[in-house]
Request: fold
Amino acid sequence: MKKLGFGLMRLPLLDASDVTAIDEAQLCRMVDAFLEQGFTYFDTAYPYHKQTSEGAIRRALVERHPRESYLLADKMPTFLVKEPEDYPKFFQEQLERCGVEYFDYYLLHTLGRDLYGKTKEYGGFDFVRKLKAEGKIRHMGFSFHDTAEVLDQILTEQPDMEFVQLQINYIDWDSERVQSGKCYEVARKHGKPIIVMEPIRGGALASLPGEAEALMKQCQPGLSVPSWAVRFAASLDGVMMVLSGMGSMEQLQDNTGYMKEFSPLSEEEKAVLEKVVEAIQNSVAIPCTSCRYCVDGCPENIPIPEYFSLYNRMEQTRDKGAEKEKYEEMVKDGKHGKASGCIGCRQCEEHCPQHIEVVQWIGKVAEVFA
Ligand code: SF4
Ligand code: SF4
Reply:
């Protein structure tokens, strides 16, 4: 099995402002080109493209190609489940939307501490075990967004889950927030094959600061910047598939070009990537270490280090859109104060060991993300 999977969450659009306006004619051409080059794995989910990704892949793939010529992965929307009876309802709906009788890979979507507890309580794991026994899914697993400790707990308590889908990319490998590296080690410890999601961090690692990009081009003039991110993930032992959300034929041709005859990163390339990470990190705008000394006393409950981290990433990758979306998600849940809510009391600055001018930077965050 080739290691590149077609992620169906960023499909080509006819209208950039409407995620449901999928360009199905282009998608059909992309699906055909993908299959023609020997790739087989497609990954959709209930909420992608405001619930229209599953129908689009039925029309572009399922109704146009023999069932045995591809592998289709789908995910139970655990976050929408309100009672145990919802599992069979969602699953049936997914079979119908996709027009298939079984899924090759089926995941409990986006587990973390809270959703894991709920999924366990409502019988979600037993539900996927039953699907597997009935032949309605071929392999069962889950996608994961939390700490390595929580992953270890899930894999210890649910040892028959056959694979895990993790966020892995070279810039978050040592990050305490995403814990790419630590989660990878936990999955390896439990002997689980890994599917990698967001290897390009939602597109953010497709455009890098000039110095980082120059290092890559110097080493491999013919390879694209995103190719380094996909190859980094695919080079890791135990990784069975790397998903890339492909939004155009151009992206697909680039990805399939270097993944058709995949060669893992050489020692020289690994050394270059280390320098690239350093160059990206050196371009950090706000030298916040996430020590959180400033957070407890903030009367407006502003998650200062998290907002600084989003701002830094936006600066490092020149991708304002992806980080803005994350900012909006954080603000939306009502648990975090907005950056624009800062009243300038400066208690944070009194506690900051890095002597960061927090008020000034929070103002900048508000300006950029609001
Ligand atoms: S200055 Fe702003 S960010 Fe700092 S503690 Fe006061 S309200 Fe919070
Ligand atoms: S105290 Fe300073 S370094 Fe620590 S999290 Fe707050 S802003 Fe960042």
Remarks:
- The two ends are 44 Å apart (CA to CA).
- Residues 245 and 251 are 9 Å apart (CA to CA).
- Residues 288-294, 304-305, 351-352, 354, 356, 358 surround iron/sulfur cluster (ligand 2) (CB under 6 Å).
